[in-house]
Amino acid sequence: MPCRVSPKRPAGQPSSFPFSAKGIPQYFLKIDDLESANHFPVCSIHRRARGGGLTVLIGVSVLVGWAFGIPDLKSFVIGAVQMKANTAVGLALAGGALYLSGARGPSWRQGLARGMAMIVAALGLATLAQDIFGWRLEIDELLFRDTANAYNAVPGRMSPYSAIVFSAIGLALTSLPSGRMRPAIWLTSALVAGIGLVTVLGYAWSAGELVTDDVLPPAAMHTGLAFTLLGFGTLHAARERAARTDVSAPRLALIERKVAAGFIGVILLLVVGGGLTYRAFVESAHWTRWVAHTQEVRERLSHRYAAVSDAESAARGYLLNGAHRHKQDYIRFVGEAGAHAEVLGALVADDPSQQELLARLNELEAQRLNLLERAIEVRDNQGWQVAQASEAVETGAWVMDGLRDLTARLDSAESALLDEREANADRYRLNALFFLIGTLAATAGIFAFLLRGIRREMLARAIAEEDLRGANTDLERRVRERTAEIVERQRRFVDLFEHAPDALVMVNREGAIVQVNLQTEALFGWRRSDLIGQPIETLVLPDARAGHVSLRERFLESASPHAMGAGRKDMRGLRRDGRVFPVGVSLSPLEIEGERMVVAAVRDISAHQHLIDALAEAADRYRYTLDSMLEGCLLVDFDWRVRYANQAAALHSRQAQEALVGRPMIDAFPGMDATEMLACFRRCKEQRTAQTTEREYVFPDGARAWFELSVVPMPDGISIFSVDITDRRRAEAALRAVNTELEQRVATRTNELKQANDRLHDSAARIAAILDTVADGIITIDERGTVETFNPAAERIFGYTAAEVLGHNINMLMPEPYHAEHDGYLARYLATSEARIIGIGIGREVEGRRKDGSVFPLELTINEIESDKVRRFTGVVRDITERRRAQTAMDDARNAAEAANQAKSAFLAAMSHEIRTPMNGVIGMIDVLHQTSLKGYQVEMVDTITDSAYSLLGIIDDILDFSKIEAGKLEVEREPIAIADVVEKACHMLDHLTGKKGVELTLFTDPAIPAQVFGDAARLRQIVINLASNAIKFSSGLDRPGRVSVRAVSAEHGPDRVVEIRVTDNGVGIDETTQARLFTAFTQADASTTRRFGGTGLGLAISHNLAKLMGGEITVQSTPGEGSTFTLRLPCVPVAQTPARADEAASPLAGLSCLVIGGAGDLGNDLAVYLISAGARVERAADLAAARDHAGPGASGPWLWLVDAGHNSPGADELLAIADAQTAQDLRIVVIVLGRGKRRRPRSLDAGQRLWEVDANALTRQGLLRAVAVAAGRMAEDDEAPAVGKSTEAMAAPTREDALRQGRLILVAEDNATNQKVIVQQLALLGLGADVAGDGREALQRWQSGDYALLLTDLHMPNLDGYELASAIRAEENGARRMPIVALSANALKGEALRCAAAGIDDYLAKPAPLKELKAMLERWLPAADTATVADSSAAAEPATPGAGEIKAEVAVDVAVLAALVGDDPATIRDFLADFRQTARAIAAELEAACMAGQPVQAGMLAHKLKGSARAVGARALAECCAALEAAEKGNEVGVLQTIHPRFVAEMAAVEAALDALMAGADVSQASENQDDV
Known about the structure:
The chain is of the alpha/beta class and 1574 residues long. 55% of the residues lie in helices and 14% in strands.
């Protein structure tokens, strides 16, 4: 009778090695074949088949119900629990596994049964893991969607009972075919059948507690039925497998009977004991719920009384101090008490006695709360004294005593109920535990009895089988041998795969990873389980994955091995942590079970890549060394092509290095014998030994030179070293000629021997003289290092005489460590021919030792010479001490230059800081002024001031970044700009200069220029200002009127637009010599130009560089004595195809008839272009006579004449007479005269408004069109609304209390008084309140109050600067609420922001900070304000209007100065003056004390503080006096201080008197009125 063979798995093999390569014995498959070959007869399969088939039927029917939405199939009992889809799948699979587990047939059926059983076990275990650990494995609704219900909170989740059964039955069915663990299988089957019977009985008896409990969800009724079938079916299947072994039928029947008896007993015991246990648990749960109910009642009573007590305390607090928060607390506690009362009423609804006590409690509580409400109402209406004496205070104590007594009675009654209910719960709990333990103990006893009987029968079976083993000994031996062979071969394969040095990845045709080895896990950081099944592209960079798929498919089609390194060199792998590393990949096709796969060997070549980089670096060093050699060096491959040539080789060949590389040797060196040269190369290549030869080279020009060639073999070619020996060959040739001549004479004429010898001696003497007179030392040594020759230059270099050196070792001239190591170098070279001796074939810098022991640098070149089979070495040395000294001096000079550059940068930073500090006041007050109500022309003036200020800031920034200009790193912006606007504003900025210089400035901007182009407005304005200011400067002061014209025209149209800006003057002109160097820095025409006109000569150079950076150029045309024209040509790209600057059809001048009168050289052409672009009809007349003819008979309609009168303007009477002479009824002529001046607003010269005048000096296009429209009656003269976005309201900041209440109060730390005013006024415009601290120490003290939401701090202050202030605040915060800190400083160094961040400062603004940037910064860091609070504050912050009877201030205080800074709002001016008076008085008192004490330093500091604020309010005389005191401080002049002090006292008294008059009722607003138009 055959027996089973169950070989053990080798210890070194993985638990799941999912493949076996073709040709490798498939170990597990062979074992399965052995098992499937054992066919045994079975008793019967009907019961097993019926059980499995019915289970499959139940599962499939439920799945059909889920698929088609049939509720009756999901639940056999209407309204009962439905079977989940996963449960149905598990039942179908388990039934199929049960059906196939005992069937006879091929092994694949057994494998299928095992697979289905494993799936069932996995399904159960996964569900249990979700229930136990709370995981979401997304398997509950894998097939069908479900909804949560009362039975199951997780949609689609099977009952835990079902999961337990599936786990157990799946494992049992998996072990069933092997025949092992049959007792465990029997017990598992009995347990499954018992769970199923209990579930079915629970539904039959309507006892839901048998199928569920309070913790676990229930199981469906047909689930229990299927479990019963599975349990009994598995028992029969185990019996069938036992029948296939040699267990006799009587014994099998006996075991079955014992198991059946024990199973029935267990079922009965479980039913009876389970029922008793269940009833006990139900009662225990019932009383436990009542215990919780009683505890909740007591807790609610306690909370209710506490809420009432808290409400009374809050009410008393409100009665005492009237704090609003106490009232809010009272309302909240009353609400809590009401909520607790409502819940208590529901909780004691089942107890009448408790309800009665609760009703009385409610009455007392309502009475107490009513009294408190009346007391609060009395407090609100009559005051706290009356409320304290009210009835609520008098009677409150006895009411609260009553509440406390009733609460205690209710709690006492509930406490008694709690004791009773806890006792009942404990009793039933002990009963349930007793029944449960008894049931389990009895069940364990029955199982122990069954196991004992089964074990006895199994022992008997073992004894019976012992007799069978003898017959199978031979079979077992052969199977073991075969198995051992298979296991060993597979173990070797697995070890080879697992422990391969490279990462091995097996991929199937679909690109999925089938298997990886341990090295793959280490290399890519993935676990094996995570990688298997994933696409191979997981290990590839994302941007290369799409291409990798096509590469993989092509390789599978070709199926040819791919060696590592044979493909792409830039392959990269992707680790799990996202790191990328270089890889080398080899690919091998593989056939496994008929399926084509690929095994990829992956190797991390990072170290290899680093080695390649290191080799590249070494190659660079090697190439540099070769380039510095005195000998020529060529690297030639085996195709005789030059791969490298150093500089010496290029010099030898008289060709460029690039011309040599890549060419064949024959082509590169045509003047050399190719046959002999190639023969020498071949010998070197074949013999692998160095070859030395001397060859003559003929240059293309016929010149000849001799070279000594050393040909050295290399792995991939040969190296050729060349030394120019032309001089030596010539000397040798001469020597040979002498010898030849001597031999001939000896042979023919012996008597001429003496003469020949003399000539030979002369030749040798000449050679010796040459060697003795060279500047470099020449030393020759033999193979032992002994010096043979030592020329005079060497004597001068080393200090030795030739006699002292000859015959000694050369190392006497070397310092340590070369002195001791030289002999070793030389011996190694002689033995190996490796050039490792110092300088063999290389010119390099080394050190030598003189006779006096001093060490000095020298340059050494050594060449080897072989003569008479004796190897000698000739060294050429050169003393480079002076060169080293020059290099050291150069390094020192460079360091000094760097230090000077750093000093310059520090100076520029300091200068920038000093300039930015007053500029902060200028630009800040301009921003403030811009927010006030201004007229159009006033806005224009303010814009001009703003542009000028920012232009100055731009210049400051250029100075600060001067190092970038010198380094060529200055960058330009690329943003939308309007070229016409930039040019017009630049001319307006120079308008004052033209008036001062007496120069006429005309302006024209072509309407065809695109409205917006991409460019840098600041840099363009800088160029225009520089060119125009130069023109104005060089046109003034001459014997003729100066004229400057600025014209911006569109030079080229189409896609590549070009704009030209031409600046023309009639100044001194520039000669051609000066024009050639005009754009060089610090260059002017001559020294007289600098003396006469001033300047540094930097402007044109900077403008020229800026133009080139912007892609343009600046050219100049000039004639000395006549003037110059500078032209800036800029390519421009319109923004989004923006149309040209042309007015729309709705222009007020559309259709207007205009006659432009003026010559061709005047402004007539420009005026005509402007008017045509605005839609007017334009005609021309050369002069007034032609204009009269134009207005003759036949003319009709209204006409407007524009007369470009220049400096010879016709009189008003003449023009009016011409207008009156026109008699046509429909002809009305309005004359507008263009004069020369700076008044650009149109002015009527007659009552009838027929004659108008406007000045053309720097007149803009819009200014002209506006004047024409006013003169034509198409626009009102004063039709100018305030500028858009300007405020017409008085500027008022919130009060400090409002800002504090909003949580938006700002602390400003600033030591400069003017800057204090500016920042406070800017914050006021933004609707923010602020406190000001004069230094960092005061700011730190104020911050400690905790009132502030943000700190604005200067960085440079006395006592404690901004950095120290921020560090101190951050240290004291120590993790508490972090207040934002923003730095404001005039220091614009690039590293300032980083230094601020290191000190704990959150953000940084450079002074002057424009209002827009300041607003954006505060919005970023300030917390949002409470809307209601802000509204209240706004309503309360209405500015006061000064009285009508106020008078103008005294001359001592010019309020117009202050009004120009902060606007003409009277309230704002009055606040500024009040602050100034208070501050000035305090400073004046300290200043007077310092003057009396003779302390000029202290007095100067105080005068400096007062000077700035005095100038800001218009106290000019006081400011000048303070400046004098400050000057005395700088000179430490006590006498001057005493002299100026009386003047200061007088000026201070005058200022105080003026301030008193103003504050008493003077009209401060009148100081800023009646300003003349500009």
